[in-house]
Amino acid sequence: MRRGHFLVWTVILGIGSLLWAVNLDAQPENILLDDQTVFTSRSRPAVDFPHLLHFDDAGIECSDCHHRFKGGENIVDESELEEDGEGVKCSACHKNETGYRFKPDLDPTERTLQQAYHRMCIGCHRQLSKDKKQSGPVTCGECHPKKKESEA
């Protein structure tokens, strides 16, 4: 390969890497899961979701959580997952209503927003625990901690 071609490819790869890193840095560190149009009354507070912790430290791929299935295959393209992009939020596809946390044999495409959150989060955390790996919360109070009187 000629020196000029090598230099061009080095610059292209460098710019590509920089753009990829900038995209990761553009992700919010924490996301408050608080869809007030769906969860109009609740007994526990919204969830403060540590977004960056999940893919920075845990090595989880974007498509492990963000998904769009066609023929049983997740066809989501990570380029679609811009912060305000259509389909980024669970509520874009899951019904905007509440329902029981674990309704057996429910078609995944018919899960309510609450069911989608609970199945995705708790299911993953339980599997990690089962595999003897560091896991996140699995109980109501761990995800939805009631505020102390001093914080209220």
Distance between the termini: 66 Å
Helix/sheet category? mainly alpha
What is the topology, as strand order, of the major beta sheet? 1-2
Our count of helices gives: 5
Instruction: Please compute the radius of gyration using only Cα atoms.
Output: 19 Å
Task: Describe the protein in words.
By secondary structure, the protein is mainly alpha-helical. The protein has a single domain (29-143), classed as Cytochrome C3, CATH 3.90.10.10. Helices cover 37% and strands 7% of the residues. It has helices spanning 3-25, 51-57, 62-65, 113-130, 140-143, and strands spanning 31-33, 47-49, 69-70, 73-74. The strands form 2 sheets. It has a two-stranded antiparallel sheet. A two-stranded antiparallel ribbon has the order 3-4. Strand 3 and strand 4 form a beta hairpin. The longest helix has 23 residues, at 3-25. Mean pLDDT is 76; it is low at 16-25.
